[in-house]
Amino acid sequence: MVGNNIIPFNIPYITGHEQGYVVEAIQRKNLAGDGPFTKKCQLFLEEFTRASSVLLTSSCTHALELSALLCNIQPGDEVIMASFTFVSSANAFILRGAKIIFVDIRPDTMNIDEQKIKAAITSKTKIILVMHYAGVSCEMDKIMALANKHNIFVVEDAAQCIDAYYDRKHLGTIGHLGALSFHSTKNIHCGEGGALLINDKSFVERAEIIREKGTNRKAFLRGQIDKYSWVNIGSSYLMSELNAAFLFGQLQELEKITHQRKLIWSFYQEAFGREDHQFELAIPPDLTKHNGHIFYLKCKSNVVRSKLITYLKEKGISSVFHYVPLHSSSFGKLNSSFIGEDVYTTFDSDRLVRLPLYPGLSIEKAKFIVDIINLF
Questions:
Q1: How many other β-carbons are positioned within 10 Å of the β-carbon of residue 270?
Q2: What pLDDT digit, counting tens, does each position of 249-300 carry?
Q3: CB 192 within 8 A of CB 243
Q4: Taking the model in full, what pTM does it have?
Q5: Residue 15: strand, helix, or coil
Q6: 2 in a domain, yes or no?
Q7: How far is CA 110 from CA 13, 105, 232, 343, in A?
């Protein structure tokens, strides 16, 4: 019976609280950014993540762009990152004139290989950008030690990382700045949205100004000044109050959502771990605590992956690959360099396939997916 129904790759979860809060926001007639629901979400996230300060943004992309401005990226500055990441990780800094320096990834986590960063550091290096793939942390102790030694900022692209940790620290709160995503593909969402996690208090005042089009309006609203004016560069990075109202309804069930996702993730991990599938699985390191955001298999080759995705589609199961390495793209070739050898980035990204994973996916359907892959 299950096989006759299409199992989508993702269904955005709805808690049931969102509509009431959105209606309340409409009734308040306060629909622009920084309204009551924005403040509730920011306070929730500050308490939950223990970041020094949290500012909601219209997207994770904009949180990363804010980070580039706060770190005062100038033309010619260099930003080190892994090539296996979403384009926003690079675009945010290229927009300010930076050159992107790619290094290889670790095959166990698909994250930046901390051992490869040192060789890429030059006098022009301004930022190490770490993206925690699938809610599994990079090796942050070693990365922070290296960054501190060379006086380099660390920005965490924690887009996939709500309720995920490294050594009991919430991801996005370890570097100088962090960015969360609330896109509809993420564990917690509001359609489109993000948040900037500020861990260096010296950034807070300027972040508020940049986020408010370069004005000191935030200080004005707090009654600290009698009028606000243009005081710095900036843009409109505020999340709509309607999105914040929706997001607040999601945040109230954050731990429940994480628990449900991790149940499915653990079922897959156990099922594929005990069978001779000749697939490779993710291996979250000991200090990490992931959030069940993504479950992936690594096939023997790109050819096998393509056959598996086609086979699953024929059986009514949607599965997908993920990032095409940025350094291999036409734009990446013009605006980046790859330092060291590409041992794992291209090879592993070419054979990675993601399986359906969302709170509404039953164990029965997950078992059906496993059984179909066993037949393959």
A1: 11
A2: 999 999 999 999 999 999 999 999 876 668 999 999 999 999 999 999 999 9
A3: yes
A4: 0.94
A5: coil
A6: no
A7: 26, 6, 38, 12
